[in-house]
Write a structure and sequence with these properties.
The protein has 252 residues and is α/β, with parallel strands linked by helices. The protein has a single domain, classed as 3-Layer(aba) Sandwich (Rossmann fold). It is built from twelve helices and nine strands. β4, α5 and β5 form a beta-alpha-beta unit. α5 crosses α8. The radius of gyration is 18 Å and the shape is globular. The two termini are 27 Å apart. The mean pLDDT is 93.
């Protein structure tokens, strides 16, 4: 799950991706009292706190072009080679981006090197991929693109601790009406995954075999039409939020 070219797949990113308030609040709490923040893999600028001095790092020109007016200054660079001196920022954050790095351990070391006080990393634990019905039942090839070392629950956390040191791992439940259209966002709105425009903003779909995705979505469409999905997932329809394995890892 690494090395995707956002210059190729990110052209309509902001059409379906906006900051989710619940996730935003979790990230800003995790930053503590940091006044200077480096946002690595910053994309179009979601989740950058407006009340702090932020510098963004993003390798894709297409993503940089979608940053709104007044967004934090951005440097074109990659996580594995940050162009800053040691301890240049109070905090370094990376949100839903470390699964795209070509060398995750090196990227983590760079985050730790650049931070005076803390590192805040937000993503899903790949070892908990089976929490999500879409993966289990319709696109199980997601399991195949998870690198072997991370398929075991807890392996991702162990790597984070090995590189970043002691950390708090805080679960982030995903609200049923999540505004940020990442992979797990529509867990209670299954028909949304049938929308090609929505899938275009979810990098996982670009990594899966197209015929596998098509077959899975055909089954989902049929199950929605027949009412099978609603019958088998009636428990989800009563939930306001769900834990799908997303966490804020805070190394202070």
């Amino acid at each position: 799950m690494t090395g995707l070219d956002y210059d190729a797949i990110g052209r309509s990113y902001t059409a379906t991706r906006a900051a989710e308030p619940a996730l935003e609040a979790a990230i800003w709490r995790a930053l503590g009292d940091a006044r200077t923040v480096l946002n690595v893999g910053a994309g179009a600028g979601a989740y950058e706190p407006p009340d702090r001095a932020v510098v963004a790092v993003e390798p894709s020109e297409v993503m940089i072009a979608q940053r709104p007016p007044g967004a934090a200054p951005v440097v074109r660079a990659v996580a594995e080679d940050l162009p800053f001196a040691d301890a240049s920022f109070d905090a370094v954050m990376a949100v839903l981006s470390d699964h795209h790095w070509t060398d995750r351990a090196r990227g983590l070391r760079e985050l730790r090197r650049g931070a005076r006080d803390r590192v805040v990393l937000v993503n899903a634990d790949p070892g908990e991929a089976d929490r999500f019905w879409l993966t289990r039942e319709y696109v199980p090839a997601v399991f195949d693109i998870v690198p072997e070392p991370y398929r075991v629950p807890g392996a991702w956390e162990r790597e984070l601790r090995a590189v970043l040191g002691d950390l708090a791992l805080v679960p982030i439940p995903i609200p049923h009406d999540c505004r940020d259209g990442f992979y797990g966002a529509f867990w209670r709105r299954p028909a949304t995954y049938l929308d090609a425009r929505v899938r275009a903003g979810v990098s996982i779909f670009a990594q899966l075999p197209a015929d596998h995705v098509e077959r899975g979505l055909e089954r989902l469409h049929a199950d929605l039409a027949s009412g099978r999905w609603a019958r088998e997932h009636r428990d989800l329809l009563a939930l306001g939020e769900a834990h799908l394995g997303y966490y804020a890892a805070i190394a202070a």
